[in-house]
Amino acid sequence: METRPPLPPFTFETSKEKVQAAEDAWNSRDPERVAGAYTEDSQWRNRSEFFSGRDKIKEFLKRKWEKELDYRLKKELWSFTDNRISVRFEYEWHDDAGFWYRSHGNEQWEFAENGLMRRREASINDVPIKESDRKFRWERTPVMSR
Question: How far, in Å, are 4, 6, 43, 87 from residue 69 at the CA level?
Fold first, then answer.
């Protein structure tokens, strides 16, 4: 059976590890890497989209990162229980016309016993910003091609 440590039940430290691992994966902008953290039948709500399964997750992420260019994300642990973690996040991106946005959101995660996420609920709001108002000024990281 596939596992993704740390496993539930979570502690403060293992919850922070899960959040950091998710931040690192999402900042890679690699749909395969991100989708590997979810169960094969994972249930998702992202904004107004509802879908399930790794293949749908990968399709969603490919679409997302074709639109949200130079995406950079920061996640913060909000709370946790035995097999659930809540996160607040912000990310910045620009569209193909060069307009910048900061997206603010909250996620609720539920994990299977093997440490893979079986449910993700995300609420997100986008705010237009000026490029000069960006918070996340990391160097551009190349996206790995397959």
Answer: 28, 31, 26, 23
* Boundaries of every domain in the chain: 12-133
* Integer Cα distance of 61 and 58 in angstroms: 5
Predicted confidence (pLDDT) per residue in 88-140, tens digit: 999 999 999 999 999 999 999 999 999 999 999 999 999 999 999 999 876 55
Listed residue (140, 8, 22) closest to 89, CA to CA: 22
How far is it, in rounded angstroms, from Cα 51 to Cα 41?
A: 10
Separation of alpha carbons 94 and 3, rounded Å: 35
CATH 3.10.450.50 assigned to 12-133:
yes
Q: What's the DSSP call for residue 143?
A: P
Full-model pTM: 0.91
Distance CA 87, CA 122 (A): 9
